[in-house]
Amino acid sequence: MRTDRLYIGLGKTLAVGLVLIWSLLPIVFIVLSSLKPGVEIFAVPPKFFFTPTLEHYVNLWEKWGTFFQGLFNSLVVTVGATLLAVSASAAAGYVCSRYRSRFLTGSIFFLIVVRLIPPIVVTLPLFPAVNWLRLNDTHIVLIVLYATFFVSLGTILMRTFIDQIPRELDEAAQIDGAGRLTILRLVILPLAAPGILAVAVFVVVYAWNEFLFAFIFTATRAKTAPFVISEMIGSIDGVDWGVLFAASTAQLAPVLLFVVFMHRYLVAGLTAGATKG
Amino acid sequence: MNLRKAAEVLPFIAPVQALVLGVIVIPSAFVVWMSFHVSSFGQAPQFVGWANYLKILTDPAFLRSLGNTFLIVLTAVHVELLVGLGMALLFASGLPWRRYLLVAVLAPYAVSEVTAVAMWRFLFDPDLGPVTMVLQSLNLPILDWSFEPSHALIMVGLLTVWLHLPFTFVILYAARLAIPKDLYEAAFIDGATRLQAFAKITLPLLGPAIVIALLFRYIFAFRLFSEVWLLTGGGPARSTEVVAVYLYEEAFRFNAFGTAAATAWIMVLISMLLAAGYVLILRRETAADAY
User: Fold this and answer.
1) Between chains, do B12 and A29 touch, taking CB under 8 Å as contact?
2) Exposure check for chain B: N or C terminus, fewer CB within 10 A?
3) CB–CB of B13 and A233 under 8 A?
4) Where does residue B139 rank: exposed (0-12), middle (13-18), buried (19+ CB within 10 A)?
5) ipTM
6) Kind plus residue range of the DSSP H or E element containing B46
7) Which residue of A has its CA nearest to B123?
């Protein structure tokens, strides 16, 4: 029995080790390599101890100024899309939670069906339409696109979270003469903070990382960081791996820290989002 | 619902519905119209019936992209499911520092497809990559993904699994934690073995979560674009294209919006078919809690 337990313990340790290597090794590699002196990036066997240098970041700054503009564009688009998606979803989720009607049931079902449409499909008519509206290569296009592809999940999540807030609170506020909007703003939203954060995590990660729409709808002025990195990968003939790693690390670090910090809400959102819609 | 109530509800739900209608529903409906027409710059669109559909369904490049997509989706999603299930059971069996391990496992969720491609290109670089070096020193075959189409598809599959394992894992792990402990206690008192407990309790109770995780992943994996586009660009000679890459090339490289639209609708239809079962289950549930 005791040896049994020993084997189980060993097996588990091994399994955990494999899981960690699989999940973290690529990330660790890219972050460490961005700090390695140029010649040591491809050293065999890989060096885990070295004198860190910022030379690749300096090169990135000097040769790829567009990357930093890309980071700024990503930030603008991410903040915009998150605000739009969260406020639209919160309002819709609120009434879906508090009213019961055929119309609302129908519209939730409709939102679920819409999630099935692959984003690339809408690029075909939207590409000429966006050009015609002279909105190509602007932040607005990406903000609206990113928000729209998350409002259906957002609404369903917000409804699930708001369902847990007792209705008596609404009713008490109503007796005090508060209107629907005031109730939403002052009573519901503060209590639905975990739901808001769950929706926000999804939108932030998506908007910060998205490639397809940025690739199709932006060119120079609104180009996002992932798009700039894809150009670095594309110029592969003489790809400067050090600079590519520095850019990847700079793009990855903020969103990775965000997810680590918010993982509780991410898990809550993923489970609620999958089981409720 | 009476009119006064409707007037109260509408402003709240209007922003969401306006976004979804304007950006997704109306454009998608317009794609149907596009798929029955040919047009090029400066010319009026011309109705061609089913010609666009016929054209792509007889195009070897399209059929190959469809085949590649199914191959990647079916293998990657099922590998994800098996590994995710194993990890969920491992985590549920009690681990020290579980919270930190959970965060580590979630990390790839934060990584963009672009950055992930940069990482994996480096790790598996056929000449210099660290993983290639390790494989070579162990006398194992390496992934020559820049020349060999089948190796490129394996790379895409690995990348897909890496990026999406956190999702599958979280769904299954949450479902596993929701199974009451006393079920296992009762089973072990009755003399059940671990294997029996797994087969008679864990697996059946995880059933719905497994179905949901699978369907979600089928539908989302079917959209696969960036990984392929950034790794191989569909090449060499269009041999590693997937459906979304085929669509992109038709529209934005060959300027053939008609056939691209037909491809788009085939994508929508396949997604709908994949989801039909799921939607049916869901409608029963939303209808049930509506009253």
Assistant:
1) no
2) C
3) no
4) exposed
5) 0.90
6) strand B46-47
7) A26
Q: Quick check: is B250 in a domain? A: yes
Read off the CATH number of the domain in which B170 is found.
1.10.3720.10
For A57-276, give the CATH class.
mainly alpha
Domain boundaries, chain A: 57-276
Whether B178 is in a domain gets the answer yes
How many separate domains does chain B show?
A: 1
CA distance linking residue B243 with residue B67, whole number of Å:
9
Which residues 81-140 in chain A show a CB within 8 A of chain B?
87-89, 91-92, 94-96, 99-105, 107-114, 116-127, 129
CB-CB contact of B174 with A267 (8 Å): yes
Interchain CB distance below 8 Å, B12 and A155? no
Q: Which helix (H) or strand (E) holds B37?
A: strand B37-38
A-chain residues near B114 (CB < 8 A)? 209, 211, 226-227, 229-230, 233, 251
Residue B291 has pLDDT above 50, yes or no: no
Inside any domain, residue B164: yes
Q: Could you tell me if residue B249 is inside a domain?
A: yes
What is the reported pLDDT for A115?
A: 84
Per-residue pLDDT tens over the stretch B182-237: 888 888 888 888 888 888 888 888 888 888 888 889 999 999 999 999 998 887 88
pLDDT at residue A36 is higher than 70: yes
Give the residue from A120, A183, A249 with the most B CB atoms within 10 Å of its CB, the best one to mutate.
A120
